[in-house]
Amino acid sequence: MNQDIFGASSMGYALIESNRIDHWKTFLKDGIGLHLQHADRDSLAFRMDAHQRRVIIQRGPAEDFVAIGWQLRDQATLDIVLQRLKTRGIAVQASSEREAAVRGVAHFWRIIGPKRLAIELFIEPLTTDEPLDMLCAGFITGEAGMGHLAITSRRGKAMRRFWQEIFDARQSDSIVEQLAGVTVDIDFFRVNPRHHSIAIAQVRGLPMDPIRTKAQHMNLLTTSVGELTDAFLRCRALGFEMAHEIGEHPNDREQSFYVLCPSGFEIELGWNALEVDERSWQPTTHQGISLWGHRPEKTGTWNKLSTNLGNFGRGLRSLLSPEYSPLQESHSK
Asked: Is 1 within the bounds of a domain?
């Protein structure tokens, strides 16, 4: 029996914890252009398609991702994943009804993934045929999911093995980027035809992580370059800082911008991301993250100095505590 589940999983939702609820409402509804499905004092939920909830904000101090929902095609796929987790000694916790309702799914199974980011497996999203009320005309989701996640790691080998062994992720390609005097290696992995659902970045030769949050950025895909431009202009008019203005990546040829969200990490909005033809695709290595554009909004000397010193300081502090991996081999780096 073929146990390969490539093509049967995708990113399904993101759960973020923040005390800046009102700012998140403005950012996602009036900036990015999502449909506000639910709002109260302590939580927000947004749609971008028939799924009742794709991005959920809950009140709390983390200012970070607390869980990523990972959708599996069917019960058979879930059974395979659960068996792989059991074989590797990775604990699985079933959700309560209340937890599932918050996320807009019938049920989920939680594991603590790399960097202690909860990965929540589900097969049945709760859907609605209520018309969408969005400033953006549409987002690309479907079987490939709602976008991708980029993660920085000090244990790149263990991080890569997790996605390859549990979800049969395939490496699409790599990018080598020079940032603030260090070399960063970025590996891109696909779990379905979309060029990548997970990107893993590691500082070459230095076991440090300069990023405060569990993920460096989350990507969403819109349907046209016009929608991309409109969202860029809305976010800028609302006062949200552009970490990187519109540009194009060399590997998936996606045009995108990166905006700082109310919690301080980056949200990438893009369009036209490449899908891989499995019959002919050959992984390669690209030099530089952008073909053009993606310039930071703030380019002054003081901004560069404060940003680089802040990242360097976080990187040094990261050396003081080990990075968690759910895989058992302690020698993975």
From this structure: no
Rounded mean pLDDT of 210-225? 96
104: left (phi over 0), alpha (psi -120 to 50) or beta: left
| CATH number for the domain that contains residue 208 | 3.10.180.10
Is-contact 230 136, C-beta < 8 A?
yes
Q: Are residues 61 and 199 in the same domain?
A: no
Tell me the per-residue pLDDT of 287-298, one tens digit each, with 9 for 90 and over: 999 999 999 987
Q: Which of 217, 206, 200, 205 is nearest to 147 (CA)?
A: 217
Q: Residue 316: CA atoms inside 13 Å, Cβ hemisphere, count?
A: 5
The two beta strands, 93-94 and 217-221, are: unpaired
- Model pTM? 0.94
Residues 15, 59, single domain; the answer is yes
CA 243 to chain centre: 16
